[in-house]
Structure formats: structure tokens, C-alpha cells
Amino acid sequence: MSLQQLSHDIAAKIDAKRNRLAILQSQIDEVENQLNSIKNQTQDYLVKTLKSSLIKLTLLKKKLVNLLSVEDDHIPFNKERAKLSEDVGTTFNKAMVIRLEEVP
Questions:
Q1: What is the residue-wise DSSP string for 67-94?
Q2: What's the predicted TM-score (pTM) here?
Q3: Where does the record place a coiled coil (predicted)?
């Protein structure tokens, strides 16, 4: 094999490797673009989900404040109801005792 033929074969191998490197670099670039797209989609999803969660948390907090306010309003009512129940029970018991005493 002549030196010229050997040089030509080496140049062909180098060109083939350059082409292969170009293809690989193109594939790497494509995968990097896909990765960046996925990162952006993930970040957008996280931001959207976080905003939604904060809105729901705010609504829940408002409902809790309203519920606590309603409970505070009902505490005196519940105390009055308990006292009334106690008074009714006491009155009923007294009435039963009186009726039992009336029975011969």
C-alpha cells in the first residue's frame, strides 16, 4: 500500500469520525432541548400548583375564621340551652315528685 493510499484511508476515517461526532452532537443538542422543555414545563406546573394551593389555603383560612366566629357566637346560646335543659329537667323532676306524692 502506498503512502498516498494510506493517507487517503486515514483522511476517510477521520471524515467518518467527524460525521459521527456531528450526528452525536446533534442528538445531544436535541436531548438538551427536550430536557430544557421538560424543566420549563415542570417549573410552570409547580408554580401553577403552588398558586392553586395558596388560593385554597386562603379560602380554607377564611372558612376557619368564619367557623370560629360562629362558634364564638354560639357559646352563649349553648350555655343558655344547657341551663334551660337543666331548668326543664329540674322542673320535670319536681313535678313528678309532686304527682307521686299525690298518688294515694
A1: HHHHHHHHHHHHHHHHHHHHHHHHHHHH
A2: 0.52
A3: 14-48
